[in-house]
Specification:
By secondary structure, the protein is of the alpha+beta class. The protein has a single domain, classed as Yope Regulator, Chain: A (2-Layer Sandwich), CATH 3.30.1460.10. Helices cover 46% and strands 27% of the residues. It is built from 4 helices and 6 strands. It has a 6-stranded antiparallel sheet. A hairpin with a 4-residue loop joins β5 and β6. The protein is globular, with a radius of gyration of 20 Å. The chain starts with a helix and ends with a helix.
């Protein structure tokens, strides 16, 4: 009988831990990442609580978004800039430059959307990175976006 009680207690403890761990992939983790970044950036949760908006302290411009996805996947997007007013020849050069830079980026993938936005994006699983690491990765992506802004957009 004692073994049954111990086994039941262990199962309850395991299920409780799993449920608690799963809950940290949403708004709680986003808030925690925002707290890690608050010295460098202005961070705010989106109204629905599934995204963290990160803005520059100097300009107030949004520089990144961190979204909580399914199954503990966090999607990070850092804004490089906008290139909607470039010619088709310049666009070809830009795409060639992006291909070259993508092979040397330490984190993320540069992409150029049809609406003209140029971003670096990356996905990280909360099972593979804790809040401190996620904040560090996002901060590095923002730094990379700023470093490549002038190189890419002139």
């Amino acid at each position: 009988m004692n073994r049954s009680i111990v086994a039941a207690a262990a199962a309850i403890l395991f299920l409780g831990f799993t449920a608690t761990n799963a809950q940290t992939t949403g708004g709680h983790s986003l808030e925690a990442v925002g707290n890690q970044l608050k010295d460098r950036f202005v961070c705010s949760l989106a109204e629905n609580g599934t995204a963290l908006n990160v803005a520059s302290r100097q300009t107030g411009e949004q520089v990144a978004t961190l979204s909580a996805g399914e199954k503990g996947i966090m999607q990070m997007t850092a804004v490089v800039g906008r290139g909607e007013e470039i010619s088709s020849g310049t666009r070809r050069t830009l795409l060639s430059t992006l291909s070259f830079i993508n092979t040397s980026l330490p984190i993320g993938t540069l992409s150029f959307a049809s609406n003209g936005s140029l971003t670096i994006s990356h996905h990280v699983g909360t099972g593979h990175a804790n809040v401190d690491e996620i904040a560090r990765i996002l901060s590095t992506m923002i730094d990379q976006a700023q470093a490549h802004r002038v190189e890419i957009l002139g």
